[in-house]
Amino acid sequence: MLPLSPAGLVAALNALPPDAVWALMVLAAFGAVLALLAAFGRAGLYVFVAVAVVAANLQVLKVVPFAVLPGPVAEGTVVFAATYLATDILAEHYGAAAARKAVWLGFAAHLTMTVLMLLALGYRPLDAATAGADLAWALPYHDHLAALFTPAPALFAAGMTSYLASQFLDIRLFTAIRAATGGRALWLRNTASTSISALVDSALFSTLAFVVFAEHPVPWDVLCRTYILGTWLVRVLLAVLDTPAMYLAGRLVREER
């Protein structure tokens, strides 16, 4: 029987191997891109990018051990990689300007969410005497929200710098390869542009977050082997896996063109 509550679903997923949950995350993220495209056109892709940038920056707080990797890694890679699928679809069918608009919307969404939640956390936490028995349930939530929405400024700066740089590079490479191939070889511009920009994203974010801005910088060999190359290889795999979605997107946007 399928779990009928969020807690039941989480418990059921916890019983699965992490690699199986990763596969479900891939299906959910890529499926959401296509579903929102089919339902709302380019507006649906804008919504996905905005939500995904916020979600990925929350998921990064979850660290998971995988059987195929040498050590636990932070989550968020799949959802963030799906933003490249969304912007590539926009660049392919609606133009580079529409793709760049989605990138800026993702940045604006993350910045706005952070500011609004920091203001909400600015209210003095409820104390037990004021809460009484009726509101006792709310007492832990200030600390829970603070753990999620008070990221280190350095991590925010590193994340948004690498996000903007890599996404704009992806759009530029995607359109350049399209022009060079005369619109042929969709698989090539999808995988090549995303793979190259993903390497820039991983290198830039990891260097800024874990060396330049870090209180205790990680060794350069660990940075290159684990934080940059390890993450990048996963991103290349995701770029290959999302290629069928790129072809399917062409059928979904046919009526909107």
Structure description:
The protein is 75% helix and 2% strand. It has 257 residues and is mainly α. It has one domain. It has a two-stranded antiparallel sheet. Helix 3 (42-59) packs antiparallel against helix 4, helix 4 packs parallel to helix 8 and helix 4 crosses helix 11. The protein is globular and about 70 Å long. The mean pLDDT is 89.
- Gross geometry: globular
Tally of alpha and pi helices: 11
The Cα radius of gyration reads 20 Å
Low-confidence stretches: none
Main β-sheet: number of strands, strand sense, barrel status?
2 strands, antiparallel
List the helices and strands and how they pair.
Layout: H1 6-14, H2 18-40, H3 42-59, E1 63-64, E2 73-74, H4 77-93, H5 96-121, H6 128-131, H7 141-149, H8 153-180, H9 186-212, H10 220-241, H11 243-252
Antiparallel strand pairs: 1-2
